[in-house]
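QA checklist item 7 of 12: single-chain prediction sanity check.
[x] sequence parsed
[x] length recorded as 156
[x] structure emitted
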Amino acid sequence: MHEAPSDHFTVTPVMLREKSQHKWGEDLWTLRGVLPGLTKGEIKQAELQGTLFFCFDLIIQLYPLHCAAYYQNLISEQPKIYLVCNANESESPQPLLMTVDYDEAAAYMETGEQVFHAALADVLCVWLERFVLAHYRPKKPKKRQREHWHESEQRT
């Protein structure tokens, strides 16, 4: 019998800060990816572009209720991982949450939080796929009932 997939995964997001080209501009922050996932070559390449910051030990938590959103992420052209940060005026973004659920990330965007995204690493795609296969049950389509617009159409 197969072991049930874990509902959480600990990652280290890697943020890149690039200096603004304009003297009054703010630094540009991007999420380069997560560890595990980024190779040493990708990290070295990113170091040439700016300063790297590592946000150690953030947990991605999965819920069976959100499997439809995870499935949509997996079948997209490029699956993504999202880092939600406080939208404050501090020196660097303050991580709140890592997620693979676009709907959850979008909800935070609507409240004004900063949301960064990067490609979902292969090791995380495999983990997410195992979780979705174990828990996702698509809803069975059901036929809509015709609406009765006129009193004469209503059955007694």
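[x] summary fact logged: The first strand starts at residue 8 and ends at 18.
[ ] second reviewer sign-off
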